[in-house]
Amino acid sequence: MQRRSRPLSQVSDFDIRLLKLFRTVVDSGGFAAAESVLGIGRSAISQQMGDLEQRLGLRLCQRGRAGFSVTEEGAEVYRATERLLSAMESFRTEVNGLHSHLRGELNIGLTDNLVTVPHMRITHALATLKEHGPDVRIQIRMTPPSEVEKGVLDGRLHVGVVPQAGALAGLDYHPLYEERSQLYCAVGHPLFYVSDNELDDARLDAQDAIAPNFRLPAAVQAHHQRLNCTASASDREGMAFLILTGRYVGYLPDHYARQWVQQGRLRALKVATRFYDLSLATVTRRDRHAHLVLECFLEALAQTHRAEPTSQ
User: Where is the HTH lysR-type domain (predicted)?
Assistant: First the structure.
């Protein structure tokens, strides 16, 4: 066989398949023995070996009446093939290992006061993420919903959790929680000891109240708009501060208010009519780059959802 005048320029997938066949032939000790291993006939093996020798410009083996033997050049190609296939397997193993040995960081932005949600889905997902990636660095920022969305859009945050009030362009939203908010007042407020049966809507709507200045669905905004809002807050904690003064009424999530209700410091007003349900959602950037840490966290959240299909 005439040698190639130029070196091999690249190794294609076809070359790799031929090299694997060559390795099997050598390991089997010849074409006949390789038939059962490869599942193809001797003529097909001979044809593919000829293709490989033609592509490499080298005689790799002797075959004929004297039997099968590997040439000196064939032995060198065999050893190079072993190194190549071993390196490919190591590459595959290491890349697959990235899925089970996560590294990097997760920057997550949260609306305040989600830690009191009974089902603790975010907490469980963070625990799962840390289990899969002990070296992952988690950074949580508690900010108003508008800042969470802005942070996800500009890349400062990988993911956020916000009240779902209509999608902003460039962001994806996936429902996470349903929470109920009720209208509260604190001990010391004139309505604290007034029973719901004696409390008419006109009197309630005349009380000083607190308006949230973050985005909410129109149906939820309507509950606030009927009140006499003389104060505002950028988050639920700010609303709680003002309600606890005993001078304002305002809406709070029931899971967040529960601690003060149990202490006798807050009470819900007109519980049969003055409430609304709000969806909170995870938010991610639509055109985000592949990020294994983020994908692991989102999958962990999805698993908590599947485990609690009726969570509210």
Answer: 14-71
